[in-house]
Amino acid sequence: MTDGPKEGYAFVIDTDSYAGNFEREMTAYLTGAVGECGVGEELIEDLPVSFDNIQDVPDDHGCYKPTSCWEEPTSGDNNAVAIFFEDKPTPEQIDFMKERVKNFNHIFKTKGRMAQFNNEPDINILGFRLIEFKQLVNEISI
Predict the structure, then answer these.
(1) Taking all residues of the chain, what is their mean pLDDT, rounded to a whole number?
(2) C-alpha dist (Å) from residue 55 to 16, 34, 76, 79
C-alpha cells in the first residue's frame, strides 16, 4: 500500500474485493496510465477524456505508479483503489471513470495477466470518494 502523494488528490473506488489484485489494471483501463512496472498496459485504449494530470507515487519498494491499493484506517480493509492526481480531477474525468468502471470486471477477466482467473467472483463497485492531500508546514518560533 502507498500512503499517497504529499500534495494532490486520490479518486478512490470502493469495492468488495482485495484491490491489490487489480488496482494497476483498473487504473490503466480507466485512465490509460501505468506505472514503471508496466502492469496493465494490455488494457490501455484510446480514451475520449485526457488524463494528463495523473500523478505517479512511489510504493513501498520505490516503484512509481499512478495507483495504490487503499487501506481504510478504521477497518484495515484494502478493498479500494486509489488513483492519484496532481490537480483535482475534472467533473468530466470523474464521470468518465464512474461510467467506465462498470465494464472493468468483464475486461479484467478476459484480457491480460488475470484472464486465467475468469471464474473468480465478480468485483463489485460499492462507491466513490475524492481525497485531497495537503502537506502542512508550520514554522514555530523558538
Answers:
(1) 89
(2) 25, 10, 24, 21
Positions of E strands within 16-66: 57-58, 64-65
pLDDT 10s digits, 66-91: 999 988 777 778 899 999 999 999 99
Within 10 Å of residue 103's Cβ, how many Cβ atoms? 11
Query: Looking only at Cα atoms, what is the longest distance across the chain?
Result: 63
In sequence order, what are the residues at sequence separation of 6 or more whose Cβ sits closer than 8 angstroms to the Cβ of residue 79?
14, 15, 16, 17, 18, 19, 72, 126
